[in-house]
Design a protein that fits this description.
The protein is an all-beta fold. The protein is built from three helices and 76 strands.
Length: 905
């Protein structure tokens, strides 16, 4: 098993000992004579020449005098040499041994009556009474704040934020409003002004740079020249630090004591409560680093477990922000309360370990004082089974400058904490016993896995599902799929999915052991983070022989308090029709690790409560799907269902069936329990609404506010044709209206996008599109409206995935793409086949805002390539969309696109 850990050796005298000047092997008082038999004396203290006096007899024609030069140069001894030079004198010296020194002198005097200049040599010997033994142990640590390996001056006195892109450092001055690009030598390559005057935080993924405005609550995405590519609302009111961890953009809010995690599309994916406020963020490839200023702790956090490792930092200064190149941790040292920064410091990162591996480390004991160092008997106390000490130093007498070594072997055989304390006695008067505390913690590897849940997969004589798992990453991955019904045994299977490829397999083939019967959930787990999925369920008993519906797999994030628009404490089943021959059925899944109580509240269109059921789903088991026909639970024309749990998290899908049981699947939407005052009002986008002789849509808008809301609706076709409407929706009510009455003036024609705005953030929506020309006269499909102002929306981003576009077996598919930016954007389409080959690349040039692009996928890729999936990408503008699947009779299925972090080929 691969494990990770940290191996720290911290001096018992504290974590900030690097601030204390070290002693020198030349420390002491030296006395001697010049070539004129005159006195010379000097003192070395902690590697600095702190005082010097020298006498000289000077003569010129008709003139002679004696001078005494007494100075306090405070000059550092470089190597074994010092040199003090002014216009009036120069004294230089070289230490031949730690106790002997020789040099030269030159003294000038221009005063009358006897101006002169004279020079000579000198020698001196150290007074044995002034020598002091001193012990130095190196290295002091593996990743603690006891040892600075490198340091550079800051490019300005008020730099507060730092990040590293793999080649260059980026620093930001939040007072003088500058962003600097530095090379590894600390030299400024370029600088530019940030997009706002309230700079807070800096992060980069190597291609773009992110910064925040803590006053306006904005996140800016910049190119490497400082031009703004994108601007979005921050998920909190006071963003103070940023960091990119390779998958997520982390944002720290010091006042709310919360970490927020956004994906590459800047959509909120998770949030983590903190016990204390933080200053700075930095990612080292495995851990997040920050500083807790109250307790003066540098904190290393595991993002997946929440486990912290704290390092004390007791110096008067404090580390303001962090960056890493995978080998060193870099931090800005803020020297005083005014925020002046004096340096960029680097320390070695902690090491990683594997159970069963052997790690060798050498520690050097140096006689760093000015007299011999006597080492006593070294003892080790602690985890003898994990550590083996080879001692070459006990009872050794080390002359100044001499050293010996301790060889330490670490062989962890189990996970957990491994501690060892080494006691080194010596005749150093300052430290009679040097205590080295070695702390090695070994735990399991924290891989950012993907966990997907498919709430309801079918395998019986009437309904059959096709499960699709897309690996859009650059490496092959193995997926484990687990199916389980409401009760009974589960079945596990594994499948290898090639890089950029996908799994497409029927439920009957995947889970033959479960046999025919009621639907079941499917859990997909893989070590890759670049995996998503969809499924298509067909009614085999319909007149067409295969009436399709489509659902999107729900990602279960590994983080606590995760945000996902298809998962939450409260989720909305937007529309459950129960009249005019329609049947609906909610499917509810508990994704927690233990049984939870789920409350179901059904609301009528006018907002009245139809049913408050707190008993049916008491102690619903994890991942065991609950399904029920809504018609058996509530009466009326239709309802909105809010499912609630106090233990995260609940998800599901809502089925809608016509009189012939032709299905439509709609994913649930997450409902916010509370909304930050900084969150903007809702801005819903319905990518493709239909109104013609063949297809007609019903638009649903849910008001989750406690007061009635007026909504504005705008329809836009690709050719620029528009129509508008407004409606009043009662509190906790909803609108479900056909396009014919909603936009009568738009007339019959191609589909169009609909934008819904309201003076409330508590708005959600969905729609049902029916094919009126099928044998049933109303074959349904169902999509979910996308809130473009919601930072946790998982259905929009700069890269979106259309997980399944079938092109074979009589099926047709069509992607629809729309964006809500203010200017036209270019969209790149990349189609991949099942083996992972990119079979087509197309570019949509200048897609106009809120005007949908739609095309039949069969016409975008060459014939004969088989089924595909699509990744649509922009340079930063958020896009959204839906993918249609049609059978030979044009019976539709709608599936929303999913925001992903895509790495282009």
């Amino acid at each position: 098993m691969v494990v990770y850990g940290v191996f720290c050796l911290i001096l018992a005298t504290g974590a900030a000992d690097w601030r204390v000047p070290k002693r020198s092997i030349y420390d002491g008082e030296f006395a001697g004579q010049t070539n004129q038999d005159r006195a010379v004396r000097f003192v070395v203290d902690h590697d600095r020449l702190v005082s010097l006096s020298i006498e000289a007899r000077l003569s010129a024609e008709g003139c002679e005098k004696t001078v005494s030069l007494v100075i306090a140069p405070n000059r550092v001894v470089v190597g074994n040499h010092f040199d003090i030079t002014t216009s009036a004198y120069r004294v230089a010296g070289t230490f031949n041994t730690p106790s002997t020194c020789s040099g030269s002198w030159l003294i000038s005097d221009s005063q009358l009556p006897c101006p002169f200049s004279a020079s000579g040599t000198w020698t001196a010997v150290r007074d044995p009474a002034s020598t002091i033994p001193n012990i130095t142990v190196t290295p002091k640590s593996f990743g603690s704040f006891a040892e600075i390996a490198m340091s550079w001056p800051s490019p300005s006195p008020r730099t507060r934020f730092i990040c590293f892109d793999g080649t260059f450092f980026w620093l930001a001055d939040s007072v003088n409003d500058q962003i600097f690009q530095l090379n590894r030598l600390g030299e400024v390559v370029q600088s530019f002004a940030p997009p706002s005057l309230n700079l807070s935080g800096l992060a980069t993924n190597g291609q773009v740079i992110w910064t925040a405005d803590f006053q306006q609550d904005q996140i800016y995405e910049l190119n490497r020249k400082g031009q703004v590519l994108r601007q979005v609302n921050a998920p909190s009111g006071t963003p103070v630090a940023l960091a990119w961890d390779g998958q997520m953009l982390w944002i720290a809010d010091n006042l709310e004591k919360t970490l927020f995690m956004l994906d590459r599309g800047l959509n909120l994916q998770a949030q983590m409560a903190l016990d204390d406020g933080v200053i700075g963020l930095g990612f080292d490839g495995q851990y997040m680093w920050t500083y807790e200023p109250v307790e003066k702790l540098v904190r290393r956090m595991d993002s997946l477990t929440g486990i912290n490792q704290d390092y004390s930092y007791s110096d008067s200064s404090w580390p303001a922000d962090f960056a890493s190149d995978g080998q060193y941790l870099y931090f800005l040292d803020v020297a005083n309360a005014n925020g002046n920064t004096n340096s960029i410091n680097a320390i070695p990162l902690p090491r990683s370990f594997q159970v069963g591996q052997v790690y060798n480390n050498q520690f050097q004991i140096l006689s760093s004082g000015s007299s011999a160092l006597q080492i006593g008997t070294i003892t080790a106390v602690g985890a003898a089974s994990s550590f083996q000490l080879t001692d070459l130093c006990s009872n050794q007498l080390l002359q100044p400058g001499d050293a010996c070594a301790l060889e330490l072997q670490f062989s962890p055989m189990v996970e957990g904490q491994h501690n060892l304390s080494i006691h080194i006695p010596s005749n150093d008067p300052a430290t009679a016993v040097t205590e080295l505390d070695l702390n090695a913690w070994v735990g399991p590897t924290k891989v950012r896995e993907t966990t997907l849940i498919y709430p309801w997969i079918s395998n019986n004589t009437q309904f059959e599902s096709i499960v699709v798992v897309v690996n859009y990453g650059t490496e092959d991955t193995t997926a484990t799929l687990t199916a389980q019904r409401r009760s009974g045994p589960a079945e596990n299977v594994t499948r290898l999915i090639p890089a950029r490829g996908f799994l497409r397999e029927t439920a009957a083939s995947l889970f033959s052991g479960l046999g025919s019967g009621a639907g079941y959930s499917v859990l997909v787990q893989t070590a890759s983070s670049d995996v998503d999925g969809v499924w298509v369920s067909n009614n085999l008993a319909a007149a067409s022989g295969r009436s399709p519906s489509q659902g999107v797999a729900i990602r279960i994030p590994p983080y606590p308090n995760a945000a996902n628009e298809r998962l939450g404490y409260d989720v909305i089943f937007s529309y459950l029709p129960t009249s005019l021959g329609l049947t609906s059925a909610p499917v509810i899944i508990n994704t927690a690790n233990e049984p939870v109580d789920i409350r179901m509240r059904f609301f009528a269109q006018n907002g009245s409560l139809l049913l408050d059921d707190q008993q049916t789903l008491a102690q619903l088991d994890p991942l065991r799907p609950f399904a029920s026909v809504a018609n058996d639970l509530v009466q009326g024309d239709g309802s909105m269902l809010i499912a609630t749990t106090d233990s995260p998290f609940v998800t599901g899908v809502g089925f809608t069936f016509n009189l012939f049981a032709e299905p439509a699947i709609g994913n649930v939407s997450r409902m916010e329990r509370s909304f930050s005052k900084h969150k903007q009002n809702a801005r819903l986008v319905y990518p493709w609404i239909s109104y013609n002789s063949q297809f007609e849509s019903i638009v649903v808008v849910n008001n989750l506010d406690e007061s009635s809301q007026t909504i504005s609706l705008t329809a836009r076709r690709a050719d620029g044709q528009t129509a508008q409407a407004s409606r009043e929706i009662p509190a906790l009510g909803f609108m479900a209206e056909s396009v014919e009455t909603l936009f009568p003036e738009i007339g019959s024609g191609p589909g169009f996008a609909v934008e819904v705005t309201a003076n409330s953030a508590h708005i959600a929506g969905s729609w049902i599109t029916n094919n009126l020309e099928t044998a049933s006269k109303r074959s349904p499909a169902q999509g979910v409206a996308v809130d473009m102002n919601n930072p946790c929306e998982s259905r929009c981003g700069s890269d979106i995935l259309f997980g399944f576009l079938p092109l074979t077996d009589g099926l047709t598919s069509a992607p629809v793409i729309v964006h809500a930016a203010t200017v036209p954007v270019d969209v790149v389409l990349r189609f991949f086949d099942q083996s992972g080959t990119c079979v087509a690349t197309k570019t949509i040039n200048g897609l106009e805002p809120l005007r949908p692009f739609a095309s039949v996928a069969n016409q975008l890729v060459a014939e004969g390539v088989g089924d595909v999936y699509l990744v649509a990408s922009t340079s930063g503008a958020p896009i959204t969309g839906v993918g249609f699947v049609f059978n030979a009779g044009s019976e539709p299925a709608i599936g929303n696109a999913t925001s992903i972090s895509f790495k282009p080929p």
